[in-house]
Amino acid sequence: MMTEEKSDLNYWIRELTTAATDASWYSTRRADNYDTRLSYWDGQSSDGKKWSGNFRKKIFPWEGASDARIRLADLVCNREAQLCLQATFAARLQMLPVESTDALQQQRCESLLKWMLHSHCADDLRRELELALNIRATYGLAVMGVFWRTTSRVEIKTFTLDDLLLLAEQDPAAGEFIAAILDPTQEVLATRMAEQYLPGPITIAGIRTLREGRVLEIPTPYVYESRPEWCALEPFNDVLFPAATYDLQRAPWIARREMVTCEELRERITLDGYDSTFVEQAERQKGSSLWPIIVQASANRRDHLLFEEYRDMVELWHIYSKEEDKKTGATKLMCRVVHSSISDLAAKEEILTYAHGNYPFIELPRERITRCLIEARGIPEIVSTMQQEIKQQRDYRADRASIAILPPLKVPANRGKLDLILGPAMQLPERRPNEFAWMQPPPFDQGTIEIERAVRRDVNEYFGLAGDGVDPNYAQLVLQHTVDRWLRDFKAIVTQTWQLMQQYMPPVRILRVSGGANVPFAAAREDIQGKFDLSVTYDAKQFDSELLGMKLEYITKSLVPMDNMGVIDRAGLVKFIMSTVDPNIADLIVRDPGPAAQIEADEEQLAYTKIAAGTEPPLPQEGVNFQLRAQVLQSIIAANPAIQQRLQSDEIFRSMIDARMQAFSFQLQQQQNAIIGRQGTLPALQQPVAA
Questions:
Q1: pLDDT category, 96, cuts 50, 70, 90?
Q2: Which terminus of the chain is more exposed, N or C, with fewer CB under 10 A?
Q3: Which residues are within 8 A (CB) of 364 and not within 5 positions of it... i.e. 6 or more apart?
Q4: Of residues 3, 6, 1, the one with CA closest to residue 321
Q5: Roughly how many angstroms between the first and final C-alpha of the chain, as a whole number?
Q6: What value does the mean pLDDT of the chain take?
C-alpha cells in the first residue's frame, strides 16, 4: 500500500488534470497548428471545390467555387526539419575531456559513441529525430525521451545425462546431483538441486527425462537487446508537465503516457522489476484510459485515433518527480509507473536508477522568446495569415478562369424558361438574331500575382529561404542560427545517451566495437556526470556547394601558401576538407599524421624489399610524402655496408634504386617549382650550392 501523499494515485490525477487545464489554450493552439499545416478545415471536398452540402450554408461566390489547399506551412515545416536532420548527421561531433588524464581515451570513446549513433542505432535515432523535428516545427516544442532499452527473447537449450557427467568432471559437487537424478526416490531433491546446474526451473518429469537418457529441452531467457532508446514526445499529448515550466530539469514533475501490449507488460516483470500483481490487474484494464478525462480539449485534433482502438493495449503513466528525502533532507528523483484504475499499487516505485541524476527528457523548443516552454511558436501559426492570403489570390484566379471559360449567358427576359446545353459545337436556337450574348468577364488583375509573390518573399526572408529579393547574407545568418539552435539541443540528447552507455553498455560489446582496446567505462556517478564534455558543430555554409568550393579554394590557394611559419596543420586541413565533402568517407580514409607517417615508412621499406628480391615496385606519383620516403630509402642504404657494396656490383639493383631516388627528387623539385612560381625564388638556405 502507498501511504505518502505523492504515492497516492489520486494526488497525481489531480496534478495531471490541473496541468492540462492550465495549458488548455496550448491544446487549442496545437489543434489550430495541425489544421494549418495539413490544410484542414470543415466542409472540405476532395475535388478542391466548395459545395453547400459540405458547408451547410450558401456558398460564396457560387456552387463549385475554388477551395484550394495551399501547403505553405507544410513546405516550411518540412524544409526546416530536413535542414536540421541533415545537419545532425553531418555535424562534427567531438568529445572534450574534462581532465588531462581522460585525453588518452578520447578518440576511442568518440569512436564508440559515433558507432552507436551513426551505425548501430542510426535508423531508430533518425526516425525519432525526424518525428521530433516535425513536432517541433508544427507546435513550437517537442520533448525527446532518452532511455535505456532492454528486451529479452527465449532460446531452447538441450541437456542430457552425458552433459552432466562432463560437468561432474570439472565440479565434483555435481556428482551428488547426478546421483539424485539416478535415484527414483530422490526426484524432489533433484529438482531443488537442478537450480544450481541447469537454467530455469526443472520439474520431476524433467528429472525422469534425464534419467531415461533422453534429451531435456529447457526454455531459457536471454537479453536480446540492451541499447539506448529515444522517443519523440508531443507535449500535452505524450508527456505532461506544469504549464509554467521553462526548464524541464527544474520541473517538479514530468509524466509520460505509454501504451503497451500485455506481452510487453509481462516481459517487464523480469527485465524492469514490475510488480507481478500489478501486471495481472493491469491486464484486466485493457482499453481503459485516463487521457480523455484529462485533456478533453485535444479531442478536436483530426489525427487522433478513437480511444476504442486502444482496446487491446494497457495505458501506463511514468511519473518522475523531485521529492525531499526524509532521512537526509536532500532531493531525490523518484520514478513511479502507475495505472489510472489501480489506486493501491504501482508497477514500480523507486529512486530513478539513471546515474546522470537528471530527468530522462530533453526539451526541444523551436524558439526562445519567453521563459515558458509552451509559448514557443510553431511555424503554422507564424505563416497562417500569409497562407490564407495566398489561398485567397489562388481562389480568385481559379474562379476568374471558370468565368472566362464559361461566362454567364445573357438572354432576353421575356424569352421564358429554356434548357440550354453549352459546350463545343452545341447549337442554340434563336428567335431573332443576336438574342444570346456572353457576359463580359472581369479583366484579369495582374496584381493578384504580385500579391502572392510579395507574400512568398516575406516568408522566404523570415525563414532564411533563398529567393528573389532576399539578401543572401541575411538568409545565411538565419540558416546558421536555425542549425545552431537545433544542435545545441541535440547535444543534450547525445550527452544523456553517452551517460547511459557508460552506465549500462555491456563490457563485451565495448571490447568488440573498440577492436579489443580497453575503453574505461567507469560506472561511478562522478565519472558519468563529469568525465567528458561534448561539442556538436556544423557550418551551414556547407549546404551551398558553390560557396563551399570557393571557401576551400581560397584556403588551399591563398592561405596555405602564406603560411611561412608553418602554423597551419596540413594533416588537419586535409581532414577538414574531406569532412566537408563527406564526413563518413573522412572517417574511413583520413589517417592521423603519426600513424600515416609510419605507414608510409613501412611501405617504403617493403618497396626496398621487393627491389632487393629483383622485383621493381611501381613509382609513387602523388598523394605521398616524397621527402619522408627518400629519407627512409637513404637510411636503409646508409645503415648497411652490404647494401652499399651491392650497389657497386649489381647494375640492375643500382638502376632500380637510382630510378626510385630520381622519382622522389623530381617530385620534390616540382613542389619547389610551385613555391618559386609564387615567390620568385627559394629561401637562401634551400637553394642548391653552386659547383
A1: confident
A2: C
A3: 132, 136, 141, 142, 143, 144, 486, 489
A4: 6
A5: 101
A6: 81
CA distance 386 to 75: 13
Distance, in Å, from the CA atom of 415 to the CA atom of 412, rounded to the nearest integer, reads: 5
Residues whose CB falls within 8 Å of the CB of residue 237, separated by 6 or more in sequence, listed in order:
30, 295, 298
The grid cell for 249 is: 530539469
* Angstrom distance (rounded) from CA 482 to CA 364: 12
Which residues are bridge partners to 520 per DSSP?
none
Q: How far apart are CA 70 and CA 161, in angstroms?
A: 75
Closest to 374 (Cα-Cα) out of 16, 14, 23 = 23
Q: Are 237 and 259 in contact (CB under 8 A)?
A: no
| The three grid cell numbers given for residue 52, joined into one nine-digit string | 453547400
3 state SS of 5: helix
Which residue ranges make up each domain of the chain? 161-214, 545-584, 591-686
Is residue 144 within 8 Å of 550, Cβ to Cβ? Answer: no
What does the pLDDT read at residue 632? 84
Question: Residue 71 above 70 pLDDT?
Answer: yes
pLDDT at 691: 41
Say how many C-beta atoms besides its own lie within 10 A of residue 379's C-beta.
29
Confidence of residue 410 (pLDDT cuts 50, 70, 90): confident
Task: Return d(Cα 459, Cα 454) in angstroms, integer.
Answer: 9
What is the per-residue pLDDT across 472-518, written as a single tens digit (0 to 9) for each?
888 888 998 999 999 999 999 999 999 999 888 877 677 666 655 55
Q: Report the distance separating Cα 363 and Cα 493, nearest Å.
A: 9
